[in-house]
Amino acid sequence: MHEKVSCFRWVICNVCSYPYFDKRFPALTLSQLTPKHIQDYYTWEMNVNNVSANTVIHRHANIRKALQYAFKTGLIDINPADRVERPKKVKYVGSTYNDKELEELFAVTKGDLRNKKDTESCGPGYRRGDCGSWGRRS
Description:
The protein is mainly alpha-helical. Helices cover 57% and strands 0% of the residues. It has two domains: 2-83, Tyrosine recombinase, N-terminal domain (DNA polymerase, domain 1, Orthogonal Bundle); 99-137, no CATH class. It has helices spanning 2-14, 18-24, 35-47, 53-72, 99-109, 116-120, 128-137. Helix 1 (2-14) packs antiparallel against helix 4 (53-72).
């Protein structure tokens, strides 16, 4: 049983921001954890650490899974993560280079043979990630 408790401590300490819980709730035990604690942590991460909603969603999945295991094994009576409202996922919108941005890219990389493949394979409408990574694939 001690092994399981130390596993949960590892998840809370490494998946969650340990300094957040350690400074605010130094004596907080797993059974005392409430949805409010978790919700406040998510709000703090987004407002103070400027992490994205998608990052908080990933952390929520890890926290919820660890707490669900604790619930199933009888370490806690309820899973407080089930009652936490996740932030809305932000859909990624990719952007492409326009003609002016391509000219700037070519001017910056002019004469640099390492980037020759990258710049030669770029054109209007290519996504930003495509131009920089094609030379490294080969």
